[in-house]
Amino acid sequence: MLLIKNGRVLDPARQTDAALDLLLDGDKIAEIAPAGKISAPKNAELFDASGLIVAPGFIDLHAHLREPGQESSETIETGTRSAARGGFTAVCCMPNTRPVNDNASVTRFILDRAKSAAGVRVWPIGAASISSKGEAIAEIAAMKEAGIVAVSDDGKPIATAKLTRQVMDYCRSLDLPVIEHSEDVSLAAGAVMREGVTSTRLGLPGMPAAAESVCVARDVQLAELTGARLHVAHLSAKASLDQVRWAKSRGLRVTCEVTPHHFTLIDEDVQYDSRYKMNPPLASREDREALLAGLADGAVDVIATDHAPHEPALKDVEFDRAPFGILGFETALALSLEQLVHSGRLSLMRMVELFTTGPARVLGLDRKLAPGQPADLTIFSLTHPWTYNVNDSPSKSRNSPFDGRAFTGAPMATIVAGRIIYRRN
Amino acid sequence: MTPRFRDLLALEPLSAEELSFLLDQSKPFQVIQRHPLKKLATLRGKTVALAFFENSTRTRISFSAAASRLGADSMNLQAESSSVKKGESLLDTVHTLDAMKPDCLVMRHAASGAADFVARNLDIPVINAGDGTHEHPTQGLLDALTIRDRKGTIENLNVTILGDIQHSRVARSNIHLLAKFGCRITLCGPAMWVPKELEHIGPPGTSIRRASRIEDALDGADVIIVLRVQTERLHEPALPVDDYILLYQLHAARLRLAKKDAIVLHPGPMNRGVEISPEVADGPQSCVLEQVTNGIAVRMAILYQLIGAAAAEEGAQTAADSAHSSDEKAR
To answer: From A316, which residue of chain B is nearest by alpha-carbon distance?
Structure first.
């Protein structure tokens, strides 16, 4: 048993913000009561959460754990240790491994590895098409039985409108969300950053915002046609968010996520440093403002990291040869506090929602702090001063543009199934 | 104070004062190009590594001649015959070159920012001899030197650049240099090659505009820089060459729209009959061959600044150190 005392408990599901104690018994929440009212058994472990926020466990809807196939960049073990340090209790891993997670045996392999090597829950996302090639639908039902929580051809969009429509029809019948990496690959071909004054100055090939929004427009209309649940991954452009707003205004089951790097950085920050290279690329100043507005007003449903480790040998090359993607787990909460809460743009409750009930709803989960619910908690500080040193990370990769950044506020403990799997010293 | 340069990666970050300094430093080396004996001993014992990861004949020969005329040795990495073809990373290749202890690395590479990336990883000075579609700083300087010789100044001129601006490292270096001296720059070419963002790549207050008709672009021009229309590297998007000639070739009738004393530059190699007509290329307003000669002078000045000035300072430091130690002995 674990008694969490003296914390400020935030639960977006019930809009609770109060001084409460929680008693965890095994892997479930046993009791929640006003501070000092729980009489725990003598042998119960105590966690003093004085001055800290106690929230439902953070869920990352979008991460790359690289196993199987690219273990020199990350493994399920190293990736989930990094996730735990970031306060995440569950991580959805994208299927673009080698081999691609497009069949039940790869799904089971991932879950087996997670069982033995990870403290954090690992929820695999299956490929929408075989090898994510966009030609034929993958064995989605078999993967669902094995444990996938969604489908995606992430790294690229589902190749054609026709196949997207078929996948959406099929996934509606299976009650799975379709997560789309929205990109018109012809508009984005050869591009290494967002098109704009900065790409023009640097002489780097750029993709226009429309490379994303054209595909989002396609997908929201197919979501209307099919009635499927569509979740737009790592949305970066105002024009894309306008499409999502349109879909929501029509009552479609369309959601979207934004990454901390897209609401923190912009294309002007790119200086031939491959740690600033990701896909979708850092967007314009106006796009960033639109994302911040969407995070505040509810148009955006989720903050997801798109944690994308690449070992140094891969990233330490000419900008245009470097692979897309940056680390995300360990800086997500601190960047969110910095950009959203400390800046006064969002309430703390709203930010917590974007990490918890927001992603849970996309997956069709009902997450709240209540007796009988899974004992997954994220405990964090609003004030803890620290500096991110990427060399301290358990991740196998070092590709973060936030290395050396000073933050106020940090994950202090990560509790999964009643066990403290990470505690900050 | 005399400016000091660690590397020469781009002209964009340099101030007008620094650029003027480099142009002034080129003057004595221009004189040497006219001497019957062109070899100095200034950089004797120094080695310049030339690493051309992308094909280049004239720039490589120009740097090689510049090094040689300063008395320096050069070592050549030919990308075609090198480990680059065997899959070695750029960083490994330049670290290998560095281990051979050159005093300076001159590099050309197809990736924008490649010289910047290498400079961050090496201690020796790096000279960018062209990186992708970013900059070609020594070309920008030699063009400015040529303009200054012919027009007496590089200030407040009307400069028109014709061609594929978007994919031209030469154009970027020209724009960044000339804009700092108050030149009014007009960019002209097919719309896909002249995006609107180009109007904003200079610092605030600089005058960069686009013209879609060549007649408008040439009106009142003091200087016309004609860019090579690439035939070996595909422009994206490609344009039928007949359309290009019809709309954008600089020929005699069009040249008359510019000022009477306008000059014409071309970074070479020229496609005669495509972007420039033979009569203009060979005409009295053309500066094409002066540009080539000035290229060696500018590159000598740069090598001298990056290697020679550092060596001179080192020498002064050594002298100061030995003076200091003799002081100590005296005590």
So the answer is: B91
Global pTM?
0.93
Mean pLDDT of A331-359: 98
From B203's Cα to the closest Cα of chain A, the distance in A is: 11
For Cα atoms A157, A160, A164, give the angle at the middle one, nearest 5 degrees. Answer: 75
Distance from CA of A317 to the nearest CA of B (A): 7
Kindly give the pairing relationship between strand B207-211 and strand B184-188.
Answer: parallel
**pLDDT bracket for residue B329 (50, 70, 90):** very low
Closest residue in chain A to residue B170, using alpha carbons only: A203
Q: How many angstroms away from the CA of A424 is the closest CA of chain B?
A: 34
Q: Give pLDDT tens digits for B255-295.
A: 999 999 999 999 999 999 999 999 999 999 999 999 999 99
Tell me the mean pLDDT in the region A312-321. Answer: 94
CATH topology (fold) of B137-290: Rossmann fold (3.40.50)
Summarised one tens digit per residue, pLDDT across range B14-63 is 999 999 999 999 999 999 999 999 889 999 999 999 999 988 889 999 99
Closest in B90, B172, B200 to A203, CB measured = B172
Q: Given B12, B111, B236, which is nearest A320 (Cβ)?
A: B111
In angstroms, the CA B26 to CA B142 distance is 9
Residues A45 and A97 grouped into a single domain: no
A355/A303 Cα distance (integer angstroms)? 6
Strands (E), A233-336: 254-258, 302-303
- Domain stops at, among A363, A391, A412: A363
Q: Which range of residues forms the domain containing residue A404?
A: 2-54+373-423
* Structural domain B16-135+292-321, CATH architecture: 3-Layer(aba) Sandwich (3.40)
Surface of B (146-175) touching A: CB under 8 A? 166, 169, 172
Residue A178: which residues within 8 A CB-CB, separation 6 or more?
A128, A150, A151, A152, A158, A164, A167, A168, A171, A228, A229, A230, A231
Q: How many CB pairs under 8 A join A and B?
A: 60
- Among B residues 215-244, those touching chain A with beta carbons less than 8 Å apart: 236
Contact: B131, A320; criterion CB under 8 Å: no
CA A83 to chain centre: 10
Q: Active-site residues of B: which are they?
A: 58-59, 86, 108, 136
The CATH number of the domain holding residue A259 is: 3.20.20.140
Among chain A residues, the shortest Cα distance to B199 is held by A197
Domain assignment present for residue A368? The answer is no
Tell me the per-residue pLDDT of B114-164, one tens digit each, with 9 for 90 and over: 999 999 999 999 999 999 999 999 999 999 999 999 999 999 999 999 999
For residue A98 the two structure tokens come to 């080698």
